[in-house]
Amino acid sequence: MEKLVEEKKKGLMHGCDTHEERMEVVSTIVRLGVVLWSGFIISLNYVDIPMIKKSSNAADITFLASIFAGGISTFGLTTSNGKNGNSKGPVKCSECQKAIK
Fold first, then answer.
1. Which candidate, 47, 40, 48, 44, places its Cα nearest to that of 67?
2. What is the pLDDT of residues 19-53, one digit of tens each?
3. Is residue 8 within 8 Å of residue 37, measured between CB atoms?
4. With contact defined as beta carbons under 8 Å apart, do 64 and 42 qualify?
5. How many CA atoms are closer than 13 Å to the CA of 53, on its beta-carbon side?
6. First CA to last CA distance, the chain
7. Pair 39, 62: CB distance under 8 Å
8. Taking the CB of residue 38, how many other CB atoms lie within 10 A of it?
9. Could you give the CA distance from residue 43 to residue 91 in angstroms, rounded to a whole number?
């Protein structure tokens, strides 16, 4: 019986000892959920579903894109369109090999 109780304690919050650690885990799960949700809705904007017709006017996804960008920035990631003025263009394989060595 005691083994069963110990096995039930294992889970997502098992390693969290304090309330702050638990809230950190919950916060990460919520942020990840928001990123996945907004990414899914943005992706649906570009996918044609056979049984569902799209309206003639395109949906504005600016708000969802800003939520997505804000969500991924909380994980330390950024979105980039590659039009940065400091960009040297695509990196060639030989340049990668030099950078690795």
1. 40
2. 888 898 899 999 999 999 999 998 888 887 788 77
3. no
4. yes
5. 3
6. 58
7. no
8. 21
9. 28
